[in-house]
Specification:
The complex is a heterodimer of chains A (about 525) and B (about 325).
Chain A lengths: L1 H16 L15 E6 L14 H10 L4 E3 L5 E3 L2 E8 L2 E6 L13 H12 L6 H4 L2 E6 L5 E6 L6 H4 L8 H6 L15 H4 L7 E7 L3 E6 L13 E6 L3 H10 L4 E3 L6 H7 L2 E7 L3 E6 L20 H10 L2 H8 L5 E2 L24 H10 L6 E8 L6 H13 L3 E8 L1 H9 L5 E6 L7 H8 L18 H12 L3 H17 L4 E5 L1 E7 L2 E2 L14 E2 L1
Parallel strand pairs in A: 1-10, 1-11, 15-16, 15-17
Antiparallel strand pairs in A: 2-3, 4-5, 5-7, 6-7, 8-9, 9-10, 11-19, 12-19, 13-17, 13-18, 14-18, 20-21
Helix pairs in contact in A: 10-12, 15-16, 16-17
Chain B lengths: L2 H9 L4 H10 L1 H8 L1 H23 L40 H37 L1 H15 L3 H15 L2 H36 L2 H8 L4 H37 L11 H9 L8 H27 L6
The chains are: A alpha+beta (about 525), B mainly alpha (about 325).
Chain lengths: ~525, ~325
């Protein structure tokens, strides 16, 4: 008894010491069947409920838009074969013939009209992509649809890959004609089931456990596909995910934790595919409430004082975060928009203030907080590379100006519901415009929140009428140069006012076993269509 | 007992030095000296407790003071390894905290949580056991069935559940401040049953003995009998149980922290450090997980051996 008790404790300790590696069966996976592991799972199967990277990554296999992106992220025809722009505010699309949904029903005009209107309906999180749309109607000719916009929108095609088409009959049959509002935790039939026209159909869905996709034999695109079946598993723990990749338990795993890049490359069994993601990471501060929710400062909101915001900006050493926590895979930025997107001047991504703790110290004292204050920093712990570590490092940096930040690291499903409800005083997250256009993050992150869907993720309620006016001009401006000027005007003000604290663009680290090849998509969306598996 | 005896006892009360000598010469200490393994365990335990007590004085840095933490010093290897710095003897963790200091304070935190939760569960368990053993009847039946139900769940699960409920019920900033209290209560809640069960059994046996009957006949109140006569006689088993339980409590605390629900990451305990280090274990940065892991193994092994020895030493049947 004495021995068994002690030895039980020892083995428990040894277990804790050893990484929790999964039992690894021998790699007998057939070439065409792959298993891929991700840090997080798709939040819903509803194509219009949540504008969220991993959700859209999974859904792009099942649902398609009128157009899609090729391996180099260029727009190409998908459910529409051709389009014209007969007048500046009217777009006419010729639909592809002979397309069927996964349940066998034919695809037609009514499905497009229904789906685009669904994306514009209450509860949809895709309104950033439908912002300029006023109406969708069947065209005069057979098998055509007409999209009408409030003003000329040169970037319309860029948003269409994100506006995915569902079967109208299927949605009506299952009572899923409106998107279930993700922010209110609502669900409907489309949350767990799917019926699209895409290259893969959903055969099994267990949220946070496994999602099985199978190549759809009736797909209209006859381009060769290497993957016939793909099982997505969520492996939240970094070390476990890498162990699964190296042991052959999974064929593809992402993200690979930065500290393991060298080890994976040296293993001879797998390699890391790298790039820079089109995503900006930043801090959002509550700039609206008169008193913060999670702070010991009563009766006033310290973030409303520009000196406090500048102090926070200057005490954060982004270079140190990049060098130590990201091992130089990230790229420090000066705005909440990533570089190299449409209508955005990369010069705006020079950081406005340099790292200077002494200056920050002075500013926070001038603002009347020599003893600092207490704050909760909300942070997702299963999304973005090293998010929790970055948050802890941010808390340590803020401590130098006596801001005592307690890190509230929670799963992303809870995190986004929380900050979406504006239940936050300070939070760390990121946004990547999946249409590669500057209007998208301006509308989602910078514009004043309104009922029309602007400012969806402007969780600190930053608001400036001049900025809003400039953003509205971006939406309506057909001329490329004047459009870029409007973007720059909005961002120059936002930057000067420190509406957010920009941090960095994260790196992409995809781990693929030897024999699995794919081009790295800089929106960090894994697309099985582009995989070749040997 | 006559008053003459009592005053004689008062006169011959020994001084502190004599007490120590008496303790060292006592039967139990002689027994300990004969058992080499138990002796080593006792020395290790004593050393670790001393280190934990003096941690704030001997730690070269204050790892809880975030202002002293420099991210640029993160992931440095131990001083003797290539790239190590002399000021960070055991290296640093992912945030740039000195591992030795974090380890010392983490050990202290682990021991404080273990001692506090064991004390709390012992207080609760012994009281419930005494009451149940004395009153019997429906109260006894209800309490013991609750204990039976709880015994069918692993202690870790109970602690996990209690911790989760506290976290969901209280706002984040309250949990952050009270996390040690929350975790102590969670572990105590998981541990009281052992005491209640044992003490109830012992109480049932004691209650039938002549001295209790005699006290009852002489009109002593039930409370007085319970506290003055029965409690001292059941103290032995509960102390032995407590020594064994300390190791369990340390493991429970580190497991909870390892799973990320224990103490906040900015004030790491040993379990938190193992969790942080786990991510780097295969990446070459072994020191973050190995040193806290070894410390945990040492303290758990030592207290366990000590507990086992104490149980055997106080068992009259094993003389």
């Amino acid at each position: 008894m004495a021995l068994s008790k002690s030895s039980r404790c020892i083995s428990a300790m040894l277990l804790a010491l050893c990484a929790t590696a999964l039992p690894a069966p021998a790699t007998t996976a057939q070439a065409a069947t792959i298993k891929w592991a991700s840090q997080e799972d798709a939040a819903t199967m509803d194509p219009h409920a949540f504008n969220h990277g991993m959700t859209l990554t999974v859904l792009q296999h099942i649902y398609e838009g009128l157009v899609r992106r090729d391996a180099e992220s260029r727009i190409e025809p998908a459910l529409a074969t051709s389009w014209t722009n007969p007048s500046p505010t009217v777009w006419r699309f010729k639909l592809r013939e002979g397309v069927t949904f996964h349940d066998g029903t034919p695809f037609g005009v009514e499905d497009v009209v229904f789906s685009l209107k669904r994306a514009m309906a209450p509860g949809s999180d895709m309104k950033v992509f439908t912002a300029s749309l006023t109406d969708v109607v069947a065209g005069a000719e057979a098998n055509t649809v007409e999209l009408r916009t409030s003003s000329p929108n040169p970037a319309l095609l860029q948003s269409l890959p994100e506006l995915r088409i569902m079967s109208k009959a299927w949605a009506e049959r299952h009572g899923a004609t409106a998107p279930a509002d993700f922010k209110k935790n609502a669900e409907n039939f489309a949350t767990r089931s799917a019926n699209g026209t895409g290259p893969f159909r959903l055969v099994e869905r267990q949220p946070d456990i496994r999602t099985v996709l199978q190549a759809y034999q009736g797909w209209w695109d006859k381009a060769p596909r290497s993957v016939t079946e793909a099982t997505l598993v969520k492996i939240g723990a970094d070390a476990t995910r890498v162990a699964a990749l190296l042991s052959g338990e999974v064929d593809f795993a992402y993200p690979v934790p930065i500290q393991d890049i060298d080890r994976v490359n040296a293993s001879g069994k797998a390699k890391v595919l790298q790039g820079t993601e089109v995503r900006a990471m930043f801090l959002a501060m509550d700039l609206h409430r008169d008193e913060l929710l999670y702070s010991d400062v009563k009766g006033r909101n310290p973030f409303k004082d520009a000196r406090v915001r500048q102090a926070i900006y200057q005490v954060i050493d982004v270079e140190a975060i990049n060098a130590r926590l990201m091992r130089n895979t990230a790229k420090p930025i000066g705005e909440v928009l990533p570089s190299d997107i449409n209508s955005f001047d990369n010069a705006l991504n020079r950081r406005e203030f340099k790292f200077d703790p002494a200056a920050a110290r002075k500013l926070i004292e001038e603002a009347g907080y020599p003893k600092g204050f207490q704050i909760t920093l909300d942070c997702p712990n299963d999304r973005y590379i090293n998010a929790e570590r970055v948050c802890q490092a941010l808390a340590a940096m803020l401590a130098r100006i006596e801001i005592r930040a307690s890190v509230n690291a929670i799963p992303s499903s809870k995190f986004f519901a929380k900050i979406g409800a504006r239940d936050t005083s300070l939070c760390f997250f990121g946004y990547g415009p999946s249409d590669f256009d500057a209007y998208n993050p301006l509308n989602v992150i910078v514009q004043t929140p309104d009922k029309g869907g602007a400012g969806q993720w402007n969780v600190g309620n930053y608001s400036n009428a001049e900025v809003d006016a400039a953003i509205n001009r971006v939406k309506d401006e057909p001329d490329a140069l004047r459009r870029q000027a409007a973007v720059s005007q909005a961002l120059t003000i936002h930057k000067r006012e420190i509406g957010h604290i920009p941090l960095y663009q994260p790196g992409i680290t995809w781990g693929a076993r030897t024999g699995v090849e794919t081009a790295v998509q800089n929106d960090n969306r894994v697309n099985l269509r582009f995989f070749t598996v040997k | 007992m006559s008053s003459l005896d009592a005053s004689a006892a008062r006169k011959s009360r020994p001084g502190p030095a004599a007490l120590v000598v008496a303790f060292l010469r006592s039967e139990i200490m002689q027994d300990l000296r004969r058992d080499k393994l138990a002796m080593i365990a006792a020395i290790v335990t004593l050393a670790l407790v001393l280190i934990a007590l003096l941690a704030p004085l001997i730690a070269p840095f204050d790892p809880y003071d975030l202002r002293q933490v420099d991210l640029l010093d993160s992931m440095l290897p131990p001083a003797w390894a290539e790239g190590g710095q002399a000021k960070y003897l055991l290296g640093t963790d992912d945030q740039g905290r000195d591992l030795l200091s974090t380890l010392l304070l983490g050990l202290r935190l682990s021991l404080v949580v273990a001692l506090a939760s064991v004390t709390l569960s012992m207080a609760v368990g012994v009281s419930i056991g005494l009451i149940a053993g004395f009153l019997r009847g429906p109260l006894d039946a209800i309490v013991m069935r609750i204990a039976d139900i709880q015994l069918s769940f692993p202690a870790l699960l109970i602690a996990f559940l209690a911790d989760g409920i506290a976290r969901a019920a209280l706002p984040h900033h309250v949990v952050a401040e009270m996390s040690v209290v929350v975790i102590v209560c969670s572990i105590a809640l998981a541990g009281w049953v052992q005491y209640a069960r044992t003490i109830r059994g012992v109480t049932l046996v004691e209650c039938d003995k002549d001295y209790v009957q005699a006290a009852r006949l002489s009109g002593t109140s039930t409370l007085k009998i319970a506290l003055k006569h029965v409690l001292p006689n059941v103290a032995g088993p509960s102390l032995v149980l407590a020594t064994v339980q300390i190791a369990t409590a340390i493991v429970t605390e580190s497991t909870l922290s390892y799973l990320g629900v224990g103490v906040p990451a900015t004030e790491p305990s040993l379990g938190t450090l193992v969790r942080i280090g786990n991510d780097y274990l295969f990446s070459g940065s072994w020191w973050v997980a190995v040193f806290p892991g070894l410390t945990l193994v040492a303290i758990v092994f030592a207290t366990n051996l000590l507990g086992d020895w104490l149980r055997d030493a106080t068992n009259p049947r094993l003389g």
